[in-house]
Design a protein that fits this description.
Length: 348
Amino acid sequence: MTSVASGVARKKKVTPSAILIKLSMVLIIGVAVYWLGLNLTNDPRQFAQVTVNGLNNGLMYALIALGYTLVYGIIQLINFAHGDLFMLGAVFSFAVLTEFLGAVGPSATNYALLLLVLLLTMLFGAVVNVTIERLAYRRLRNAPALAPLITAVGMSFVLQWIGLKWIGSNPVNVNTVLPSTSFEIAGVVIAFKTVIIFGVTIPLLVFLAFIVNKTRRGRAMRATAQDKDASRLMGINVNQTISFTFAIAGAAAGAAGIMWAQTTGTVAYNLGFQLGLIAFTSAVLGGVGNLYGAVLGGIIIGLIQSYNDGLAIGPGQRWSQTMVFTILILLMVYRPGGLLGETAQEKV
């Protein structure tokens, strides 16, 4: 989303440290490929099943990560409140769909209500996010970078407190309207809920990419990301553009919230902390500021967790978080900008 200043091309000098880094990277990739190949040959069906489960979790992370990367791409703010906005979206969808509308099981009517509540939850997320931007972040736009960052952490606690007062401190079970049935392909069980997550995430990514790359509003977003002052001189309403960005990021969080509630059957006031951290990690892994990078990072982390937890030959579930963040640290060493991101270069 952001542009990178390109300098004069220079021939890089090969140093022993550079050679060592390359060799270590090849070694790590080789070990990972060997480990995956060993599990694949040991039990191909289990490997395929674990892969499907990883894709399911990864797409959920990707939905949340889209909001992180959109906001960071425009104003370079890590919106730590985004994870808790996802939590509020899950709670809101549960309150409206289950408690208010009484939809508690699969039926044609409840599917229609689910679609309606999906739109309402996206609208709810957009309104809350725009309100947060207007009240908390806009006045700090020209402040030192630490001020909006701490404000974002504070907003995270505020939203978490709202969730606590809304549903209490204990997790709440949700009667989902999505079918719990599944189908089998070559011995691999695929739940219909996984198909539905694909059906929400992929079109949403395509729609967001279309907005950013093909529309007038998207061009204004890209211009604002590059230079706010120049954008104002060109007649772009910067405040309106940033508010629009927060709106679509909040809508993505709302969509992720209702998908989580309907696929896992539970909501909790502290849901946004861990999932928000993993989603932010996904955005960084793929290249923060890049929509496709957010989805790629989410899928990779979902697969890493699933392979670590579900394969017969592996560290096991207790090492899940350690594996994810170790791989993130290694990637930042070898590619600081992320898989699809670019490392900014400043002209001197």
